[in-house]
Amino acid sequence: MDETTRTVLQRVVRKVPATRLREVLRTWGRVPARQLDLLDFSTSKFVLFEDVRSLCEVNSALTELLMSLFHFIGNPAQGVWRACHLTEPDVELRQFKEQFKARLTELISNVSVKIKKHDDEAVWIRIAWGDHFHRPNQLKPTYVVHHLQTPYVFVYNLSTKHKPLLYQALVLATRHGSMKDSHLSGKSLTSIRDFLMRSYQQAFPTKYARPLQEKNTAPTNPNIEKEHAEQEEKRLQLACEAFGEGNVPRLETATYKLETRYRGSGNETLNNREEPFRALIKFSSANLLVSLNHCVSAGMAETPVTPLLSSITQKGKNYFVITDKGSGNSSQSMVQKK
């Protein structure tokens, strides 16, 4: 076992919780089942790693990398995932595997690619990048998740240098016309996937007010109480229409990049500038959609909801560029099929 393979295996054993390590090793399939039952998972990770390493049936230097892929499939919320959008047709799994590996190796000589189909029909790809002078770096891989029957691709840890190579390989392998950024990112892969595929409870405009839960409040003027109840019902309906209701996808941020003329009062210096006023505004929360819903329904934000916020769910994005020519027009990075 070479030093790179040893380091990758050691990192995965250390990262996987002891309660899940047996399941990951069994899925990996490199440790015989009868010997796996003899491992003591209550010992330290250092001792456990040495036991696993000694039991491995090493056929090549890259077999241990499959374990890294299996671990990442089971624990995808380890960084920021970015969504991309393919346009036009789809392709079957076997053909996709062959075409993707062939196209990527044509674009870059030293590259390591591992592909695995998950239970939810998603194709997981692990890519280690190299160049003409260096072997693939197995310690900093890129992960790609693609549902073959959808146009969506989710990417983790992709550098600017390798972005056009990956996009071009995906476009050619899937026989799509182009690929562009969706301007949607988040730490939860499941959430941004459900967000793009609209797999969450949504509310739609209605002329019928929704009933509110009863509250034990002191007696008040019936007319005032009725007016307050109607306003509260309206705010709740508008909040759910804009940001969903119930168990909504978890987004942590929404970013707005402003490139507009300054329109404030009392500052002639900024008002007379010809070049645009630039600023970056970022909203962050443990669950941004839930927080925005609460702000609107509780009356802390004005209604109707501004399109700058409702566009998060309507356009499926959380990064926007605001210009004088139009609001919410994000600059799109696109790769066309050659």
TrEMBL record:
Record gene name: CENPN
A Pfam family matched in the record: CENP-N
Subcellular location as annotated: Chromosome, Centromere; Nucleus
Protein name, per record: Centromere protein N
InterPro entries (UniProt xref): CENP-NAC/CAD_complex, Chl4/mis15/CENP-N
Organism per entry: Denticeps clupeoides (denticle herring)
Residue runs in coiled coils: none
Keywords, comma-separated and alphabetical: Centromere, Chromosome, Nucleus
GO cellular component terms, A-Z: chromosome, centromeric region; nucleoplasm
Single biological process term from Gene Ontology: chromosome segregation
Main location: nucleus
Similarity remark: Belongs to the CENP-N/CHL4 family.
